[in-house]
Prior knowledge:
The structure is a single chain. The chain is mostly helical. Helices cover 61% and strands 8% of the residues. It has a domain at 20-126: Winged helix-like DNA-binding domain superfamily/Winged helix DNA-binding domain (Arc Repressor Mutant, subunit A, Orthogonal Bundle). The protein has 7 helices and 3 strands. A 3-stranded antiparallel beta sheet has the order 1-3-2. It is globular, with a radius of gyration of 20 Å. Its main location: cytoplasm. GO terms for molecular function: DNA binding; DNA-binding transcription factor activity. InterPro entries: HTH_MarR-typ (IPR000835), MarR/SlyA-like (IPR039422), Transc_reg_Sar_Rot_HTH (IPR055166), WH-like_DNA-bd_sf (IPR036388), WH_DNA-bd_sf (IPR036390).
Amino acid sequence: MATEQRTGAGERSDEELSMLLDDQMCFALYAASRAVTALYRPMLDEVGLTYPQYLVLLVLWERGEDAATGVKDIGAALQLDYGTLSPLLKRLEARGLIRRERRADDERAVRIALTPEGAALRERARAFPGEIGAAMGLDDEEFDRTRASLRRLVDNVTAYTRERR
């Protein structure tokens, strides 16, 4: 039952929407996120990372070992603000996995680059997506469809939020 919808043509009225926990999309998303993040925890513990630190490294690994990426670009990719991202980057730098570099043409701008240790960690993490995918128990088509639906949901909610400002 689609309970968390804006009322419009052909949609349910507020009186018809369920207030049962199991009918709430927000709870299904929350529970799924917690379950998947919990799957990552033991694997990430083995390499000494938190889940948000792993996400930062995924962005950097995707951009390439020799590429330096702007803090703003990392924040945009992860949908994180500077205040949330900055402590993550400091901890990764303290671990020797990244280095922060000021741009010569604009010293206010900081670029993030992988260290050799940060680049090497990619090989240790290479098995993570397969293990997580296997635990999810979705075939390739279900996996792709679910990911596409979640991306569409994020886009829709983001657009809706912008409209309301």
